[in-house]
Amino acid sequence: MTRLHSVHPVLPAQDVPVSIGFYVERLGFQLAFADSTKDPRYAGVRRDEVEIHLQWHDPGERDRVERPQLRFFAPEVERLYDEFKRADVFHEKTRLRDTAWGTREFGFFDPDWNGLTFYRDLRPDDR
Fold first, then answer.
1. Which of 11, 39, 77, 78 has its CA 20 to 30 A from that of 122?
2. Domains and CATH numbers, the chain
3. Is the distance from CB of 73 to CB of 127 less than 8 angstroms?
4. 52: nearest Cα among 78, 77, 70, 79
5. For 42, phi and psi rounded to 5 degrees?
6. Cα(14)–Cα(3) distance, rounded to whole angstroms?
7. Residue 102: left if φ>0, alpha if ψ -120 to 50, beta else—which one?
8. How many percent of the chain have pLDDT more than 70?
9. CA triplet 5, 119, 84: central angle to 5 degrees?
10. Closest of 32, 116, 43, 122 to residue 80, by C-alpha
11. Is the pLDDT of residue 95 over 50?
12. pLDDT over threshold 80, residue 61
Protein backbone atom coordinates (compact mmCIF):
# COMPACT_ATOMS: atom_id res chain seq x y z
CA MET A 1 0.00 0.00 0.00
CA THR A 2 1.24 3.54 -0.76
CA ARG A 3 2.26 5.44 2.38
CA LEU A 4 0.69 8.80 3.33
CA HIS A 5 3.20 11.28 4.76
CA SER A 6 1.25 14.26 6.08
CA VAL A 7 -1.97 16.22 5.93
CA HIS A 8 -2.27 19.97 5.41
CA PRO A 9 -5.64 21.16 6.71
CA VAL A 10 -7.18 24.23 5.09
CA LEU A 11 -8.73 26.64 7.59
CA PRO A 12 -11.21 29.36 6.65
CA ALA A 13 -9.94 32.89 7.34
CA GLN A 14 -11.84 36.17 7.04
CA ASP A 15 -8.59 38.16 6.84
CA VAL A 16 -5.68 36.02 5.64
CA PRO A 17 -2.95 38.58 6.57
CA VAL A 18 -4.33 38.80 10.14
CA SER A 19 -4.38 34.99 10.38
CA ILE A 20 -0.82 34.77 9.04
CA GLY A 21 0.24 37.29 11.68
CA PHE A 22 -1.42 35.30 14.45
CA TYR A 23 0.25 32.02 13.51
CA VAL A 24 3.66 33.58 12.78
CA GLU A 25 3.95 36.24 15.50
CA ARG A 26 2.07 34.52 18.32
CA LEU A 27 2.37 30.76 17.70
CA GLY A 28 5.88 30.59 16.24
CA PHE A 29 4.99 29.38 12.73
CA GLN A 30 6.77 30.62 9.61
CA LEU A 31 5.15 31.73 6.39
CA ALA A 32 5.62 28.86 3.92
CA PHE A 33 3.91 30.48 0.91
CA ALA A 34 1.23 32.98 -0.11
CA ASP A 35 -0.58 33.56 -3.39
CA SER A 36 0.14 37.30 -3.15
CA THR A 37 2.53 39.52 -1.21
CA LYS A 38 0.04 42.41 -1.07
CA ASP A 39 -3.36 40.81 -0.42
CA PRO A 40 -3.06 37.05 0.05
CA ARG A 41 -6.23 34.98 -0.21
CA TYR A 42 -4.48 31.63 0.24
CA ALA A 43 -1.34 30.99 2.29
CA GLY A 44 0.46 28.30 4.23
CA VAL A 45 2.21 28.51 7.58
CA ARG A 46 4.63 25.90 8.93
CA ARG A 47 6.09 24.94 12.28
CA ASP A 48 8.27 21.83 12.51
CA GLU A 49 6.45 19.12 10.51
CA VAL A 50 3.04 20.84 10.70
CA GLU A 51 1.71 22.92 7.81
CA ILE A 52 -1.64 24.70 7.90
CA HIS A 53 -3.21 26.39 4.89
CA LEU A 54 -5.32 29.53 5.35
CA GLN A 55 -8.00 30.32 2.77
CA TRP A 56 -10.07 33.48 2.54
CA HIS A 57 -13.80 33.14 3.23
CA ASP A 58 -16.40 35.87 3.08
CA PRO A 59 -17.09 37.20 6.60
CA GLY A 60 -20.82 36.82 5.87
CA GLU A 61 -20.31 33.05 5.68
CA ARG A 62 -18.95 32.76 9.23
CA ASP A 63 -22.10 31.16 10.60
CA ARG A 64 -22.50 28.92 7.54
CA VAL A 65 -18.94 27.56 7.46
CA GLU A 66 -18.27 24.61 9.77
CA ARG A 67 -15.46 25.54 12.18
CA PRO A 68 -12.63 23.01 12.02
CA GLN A 69 -11.15 21.51 15.17
CA LEU A 70 -7.49 20.49 14.84
CA ARG A 71 -5.56 18.27 17.28
CA PHE A 72 -1.76 18.48 17.34
CA PHE A 73 0.34 15.78 18.97
CA ALA A 74 3.00 17.59 21.06
CA PRO A 75 5.26 15.36 23.19
CA GLU A 76 6.31 18.41 25.28
CA VAL A 77 2.82 19.83 25.69
CA GLU A 78 3.67 21.45 29.04
CA ARG A 79 6.46 23.53 27.46
CA LEU A 80 4.20 24.45 24.54
CA TYR A 81 1.49 25.52 26.99
CA ASP A 82 3.98 27.85 28.72
CA GLU A 83 5.16 29.23 25.37
CA PHE A 84 1.64 30.01 24.15
CA LYS A 85 0.62 31.39 27.56
CA ARG A 86 3.43 33.96 27.24
CA ALA A 87 2.12 34.78 23.74
CA ASP A 88 -1.24 35.74 25.33
CA VAL A 89 -3.40 33.67 22.96
CA PHE A 90 -5.52 31.86 25.54
CA HIS A 91 -9.15 32.33 26.45
CA GLU A 92 -9.65 33.08 30.14
CA LYS A 93 -10.72 29.45 30.74
CA THR A 94 -7.83 27.79 28.86
CA ARG A 95 -6.13 25.28 31.14
CA LEU A 96 -3.65 22.44 30.76
CA ARG A 97 -5.63 19.42 31.91
CA ASP A 98 -5.58 15.65 32.07
CA THR A 99 -8.54 14.03 30.33
CA ALA A 100 -10.55 10.90 31.05
CA TRP A 101 -9.35 9.50 27.71
CA GLY A 102 -5.69 9.55 28.74
CA THR A 103 -4.23 12.79 27.40
CA ARG A 104 -2.81 15.99 28.83
CA GLU A 105 -4.04 18.85 26.66
CA PHE A 106 -5.07 22.45 26.20
CA GLY A 107 -6.91 24.28 23.46
CA PHE A 108 -7.96 27.70 22.19
CA PHE A 109 -9.31 29.38 19.05
CA ASP A 110 -7.49 31.29 16.32
CA PRO A 111 -8.86 34.70 15.17
CA ASP A 112 -11.41 32.93 12.92
CA TRP A 113 -12.69 30.58 15.65
CA ASN A 114 -10.91 27.52 14.29
CA GLY A 115 -10.24 25.23 17.26
CA LEU A 116 -6.62 24.31 18.06
CA THR A 117 -5.92 21.59 20.64
CA PHE A 118 -2.43 20.44 21.63
CA TYR A 119 -1.95 17.17 23.52
CA ARG A 120 0.29 14.33 24.58
CA ASP A 121 -0.63 10.83 25.62
CA LEU A 122 -0.39 9.95 29.31
CA ARG A 123 -0.24 6.20 28.69
CA PRO A 124 3.11 4.39 28.98
CA ASP A 125 3.13 3.71 25.23
CA ASP A 126 3.45 7.46 24.60
CA ARG A 127 4.46 8.05 20.97
1. 11
2. 10-58+67-121 (3.10.180.10)
3. yes
4. 70
5. -150, 130
6. 34
7. left
8. 91
9. 105
10. 116
11. yes
12. no
